[in-house]
Specification:
about 400 residues, Arginase, Chain A, eight-stranded parallel beta sheet, 11 helices, about 35% helix, globular, HDACs, Acetoin utilization protein AcuC, histone deacetylase activity, His_deacetylse_dom_sf, acetoin catabolism
């Protein structure tokens, strides 16, 4: 079993190949695949990627049979058609829109990302790894029959479905992207084997405009969708307070056998697409928290995915290098210097000065929920709204547990 202090390395499968960078909508689209290249380069420069416990597996393109476990056949056919002729978009299915521009080879590129998350889940399912990582994945907005929010195929849902089909009885999905994990939630809306728990900026100020506390799952799965909708401007202290006021309690009550988590890092203060004020330090703490929950409640079994993140030089590479390091059982300290070779590459390639340290020197202290509820605090009101909706369904007291 892994330990958060990193004293016990964990067998970890990273699904990666350069072909995953073919998922590219356009030269100016915010979803820039160069963020993946920079992450791999940084992980290599810090000698994280070369660790003995990390195995790099080249993902296969997901088959139609695999995609059909969460997507409609007509939708898959539409993705293929648009990818074969990008001049014929299908906006009714979200293909060829401003968010999801049509591009040649769309199906293959999207299915490869999906195959990466399926492979990460299979590694955990088969026991060849305790942890699976696919930072090219996390496409959580895709629905059964529609694309959305830069997401074509929902690899997170496909990984969860593979685990369920492999005999796992309960899967906890934790989503800490700035945006609500709407696609995963809707795909498993009526499945009581899956608890989807999304911590995000409120839909009143951010796409996709969903993810409110009263969205709690279908009639057959009440309480299996949990949403913590935080106000714009929430920083590390409020974010971590909310996480620790909701996620550990529900994890313990649900008793998952595997945790799948989505670690979009677009909640960072430097990210131009959201209104949160998080730091790499706070995001790293979330990764440590999820790893600890997997240790405590799922015998360490954990599949970790990427997601949003649009500052490709300052934020994404550091955040996801931390994710890989934590998954391997050996976290990188925040005061670690960013290697000069990597900073030189960023300067020469992008004309930017990269950060000097692996952290932002942020204060990540948060108030424990046990110290009391402040009704004048917008974050506390958001937390309480979620707890009041969901906690009684698990036999928990929204005021005290």
């Amino acid at each position: 079993m892994t330990r958060i202090n990193g004293t016990v390395p964990a067998a970890t499968t990273l699904t990666w190949c350069e072909d995953m960078m073919e998922y590219r909508f356009s030269a100016t689209h915010p979803m820039d695949p160069r963020r993946l290249d920079l992450t791999v380069r940084l992980a290599e420069a810090l000698e994280v990627l070369g660790r003995e416990q990390i195995t790099v597996a080249e993902p296969r393109v997901a088959t139609d049979e695999q995609l059909l476990t969460v997507h409609d056949a007509d939708y898959i056919a539409a993705v293929k058609a648009v990818g074969e002729d990008p001049t014929t978009p299908d906006p009714a299915r979200g293909l060829g829109t401003e968010d999801n521009p049509a591009f040649a080879g769309m199906h293959t590129a999207s299915a490869r990302l999906a195959g990466g998350s399926i492979a990460a889940a299979e590694a955990v399912l088969e026991g060849s790894a305790l942890h699976g990582v696919n930072f090219a994945g996390g496409m959580h907005h895709a629905g059964r029959g529609t694309a959305g929010g830069f997401c074509i195929y929902n690899d997170a849902a496909l990984a969860i479905r593979r685990l369920l089909d492999g005999g796992v009885r309960r899967v906890l999905y934790i989503d800490v992207d700035a945006h609500h994990g709407d696609g995963v939630e809707q795909i498993f809306w009526d499945d009581d084997r899956v608890l989807t728990l999304s911590l995000h900026e409120s839909g009143t100020s951010l796409y996709p405009g969903t993810g409110f506390p009263n969205e709690i799952g279908g009639a057959a799965a009440q309480g299996r969708a949990v949403n913590v909708a935080l106000p714009a401007g929430t920083g590390d202290s409020g974010w971590l307070r909310a996480f620790h006021a909701v996620v550990p309690q529900l994890t313990a009550a649900f008793e998952p056998e595997v945790i799948v988590s989505q670690h979009g890092c677009d909640g960072h203060a430097r990210d131009g697409l959201t209104n949160l004020r998080l730091s790499v330090d706070g995001q790293r703490q979330n990764m440590l928290d999820v790893a600890q929950l997997a240790d405590q409640h799922a015998e360490g079994r954990w599949v970790a995915l990427g997601g949003g993140g649009y500052d490709i030089t300052h934020v994404v590479p550091r955040a996801w290098t931390h994710l890989l390091a934590i998954a391997s059982g050996q976290p990188v300290p925040l005061l670690t210097a960013v290697p000069a070779s990597w900073r030189d590459h960023v300067r020469e390639r992008y004309g930017l000065e990269a950060p000097r340290l692996m952290g932002d020197d942020a204060d990540t202290w948060w108030r424990s929920w046990e110290v009391g509820y402040d009704p004048a605090d917008a974050v506390d009101r958001a937390i309480m709204a979620t707890r009041k909706e969901v906690f009684p369904l698990y036999g928990l007291d929204p005021w005290f547990d």
